[in-house]
Amino acid sequence: MIGCGGGTLGSMLARAGKQVSIVDIDPVSFTLAKRYFGLPQNVRCHVGDGLVFLQRTGRRYGVLIVDAFKGENIPAHMTGAVFFEAAIRCLRRDGLVMVNVCLERKSDPIADKIAAGFKDRGRSVRILDSPGKERNAIVLAGNVKNLRRPQLLVPPQSDLQQTGKELREMRFRRRRAVSAIVRQTNGRMNRK
Question: Thinking of the domain 49-191, which architecture would CATH place it in?
Answer without folding.
Answer: 3-Layer(aba) Sandwich (3.40)
